Amino acid sequence: MCRRRANVTNILADLSQRAGIHEIFDAIGEMRIDILVNNAGIGSSEDPRLVVDFDDAFWEKTLYVNLTVPYLLSKTRSARDAEGWARPDHQYRFSGG
């Protein structure tokens, strides 16, 4: 097994807003991204109710954060470093939002 030291950078951003994606890549600057961990998500426990009573705005926010944001992060990362190598690692944690 090969042991290497790694530099890890955590960046906090409000990913329920599209500007959060730009904030992340502004913070990264020219740093190389080898692994992108999309660790954001909203679960139904945030606003529990029957589907018939579910708030449509919350539904849209849930879809945006859980589906669109990982896509946009991966797309932005790929466009930014097209000749580099990276592998998106989609990990989801369903909490606050």
Task: Describe it.
The longest helix is centred in the C-terminal third of the chain and has 25 residues, at 56-80. Helix 2 (56-80) links the parallel strand 1 (35-38) and strand 2 (87-90). This protein has two helices and two strands. The protein has a domain at 32-90. It is mainly alpha-helical and 97 residues long. The chain has a two-stranded parallel sheet. It is elongated and about 50 Å long.
Descriptive keywords:
about 100 residues; mainly alpha; two-stranded parallel sheet; 2 helices; about 35% helix; elongated
Question: What radius of gyration results from the CA coordinates?
Answer: 16 Å
Widest sheet: strand order? 1-2
- Structural class estimated from helices and strands: mainly alpha
Number of helical runs?
Answer: 2
Question: Distance N terminus to C terminus?
Answer: 39 Å
Mean model confidence by pLDDT: 77
Q: Are there runs of 5+ residues with pLDDT below 50, and where?
A: 92-97
Major β-sheet annotation: 2 strands, parallel
H/E element order: HEHE
Beta strands, count: 2
Gross morphology is: elongated
What is the strand content? 5-15%
Helix percent reads 25-40%
